[in-house]
Design goal:
This protein is mainly alpha-helical and 198 residues long. A hairpin with a 2-residue loop joins strand 1 and strand 2. Bound molecules: heme C (HEC). The site of heme C (HEC) has 24 residues, from helix 4 and helix 5.
Length: 198
């Protein structure tokens, strides 16, 4: 078997049925890249898993805080510096109920096209009876409106996309005001609905 001069030093002792093996070294640049990935891996592990580096959620919070500061959108805080949580409630203030009805019947939001002009239900469930699919607390009803049910055709209205929290508060107050009104042609209850009184 012919062995080239410059391969003599590289030739290993192995001989597999006449097939010989050369001990070719990895290119230096490749080797350094490999060492670099090991060092990077150790550094990454140490920083993020042992030294408490920020995870994705913390990074998100930090970016949101930075954006809020930059655009002057700091959340309102109470005296102790805690952000003020919006408190969902069914208001009895007639002006807010009227505003809620206007939003419900308005052509921007079209609640009535799916839930009926009197809340009797059509595509969407009846909103006047004591049967609810997603709960009947002020918080749950507000969340139904804010998040919507996109896979069932109801878009998300909240978080300022269409309605502000104050407007959602008015709509849920309107919904509370039509409880038990027994409108004509009520939609049959959804089998998933359970009894719940506002
Ligand atoms: C395109 C039709 C459509 C529109 C428009 C729509 N909804 Fe709905 N809504 C639905 C459907 C369908 C459901 C039931 C979701 C499910 O089956 O889980 C629903 C569920 C709800 C629920 C929860 C009911 C329960 O039993 O838990 C509330 C509250 C509600 N809608 C209020 C509103 C309000 C207020 C508006 C307007 C701002 C609105 N919806 C606009 C279709 C609609």
């Amino acid at each position: 078997m012919k062995v080239f001069d410059d391969e003599k030093d590289l030739l290993l002792d192995h001989d597999y049925d006449g097939i010989k093996e050369l001990d070719n070294h990895m290119p230096v640049w490749w080797l350094w890249l490999f060492y670099f990935t090991i060092a990077f891996g150790i550094g990454y592990l140490a920083y993020y898993y042992m030294l408490g580096g920020p995870d994705q959620h913390e990074l998100y919070e930090m970016e949101v805080a930075a954006a809020q500061e930059r655009y002057g959108l700091e959340p309102e805080v109470d005296e102790s510096g805690e952000p003020i949580q919006f408190e969902w409630a069914y208001l009895e203030d007639q002006a807010r109920i009227d505003e809620g009805r206007e939003i419900y019947m308005g052509n921007n939001n079209l609640c009535y096209t799916c839930h009926g002009a009197n809340g009797e239900g059509l595509v969407g469930p009846n909103l006047t009876d004591n049967l609810w699919i997603h709960g009947c607390s002020a918080e749950e009803v507000a969340s139904s409106i804010i998040e919507g049910y996109p896979d069932r055709g109801m878009i998300a209205y909240g978080s300022g996309a269409r309605l502000t929290d104050e407007q959602v508060q008015s709509v849920i107050s309107y919904i509370a005001s039509i409880q038990g009104t027994e409108p004509a042609n009520p939609k049959a209850p959804d089998p998933r609905a359970t009894e719940c009184s506002l």
